[in-house]
Specification:
The protein is an alpha/beta fold. It has helices at 2-7, 12-29, 36-44, 49-62, 103-115, 131-137, 147-155, and strands spanning 66-69, 81-85, 88-95, 121-125, 142-145. It has a five-stranded mixed beta sheet.
Length: 162
Amino acid sequence: MLLNWVRLISRPAHRTRVKQSRRLLRRVRGFGGPQRAAHVLSYLRKIDPYVLEELVLSALEDRGCLVLRNRRYSGDGGVDGHVRISGSWWPIQVKRYGAYIDHQHVSEFVQIVSSAEYGGGLFVHTGLSGSAVYRHLRGSSVYLISGDRLVEMICAHATHWP
């Protein structure tokens, strides 16, 4: 966290979004009841997309992962941040969708992960996957995190991931 604070010292908007993500993370973790997952996903679909990116990164930090936040939101080359998993760096792409995701986004991310020496990649989204997405994931080291898996990643404090 200290490394990211130093990296973002000249980026006040980023620091503000990280703080906002921490506040929203506490709020989302407080949701309960039988419709908890639906409530969490509905809430995540309404927040600012950049805050959602930071919220996912903050949740991974809370799980004990080393996270490297990007210094910019647009023009990031399709990678929203990096997380250290099992001794290697994994890029993360976070997308806020209300409906089906664009399978082309997944295809582009798979290409990014396979073109570099990453241990794998996390494509995180709030929408519906659809069958076309899985065609792009076959044979790749990209994990799709959505639905119940996304809610578990954000709300649980378990240290095993993915």
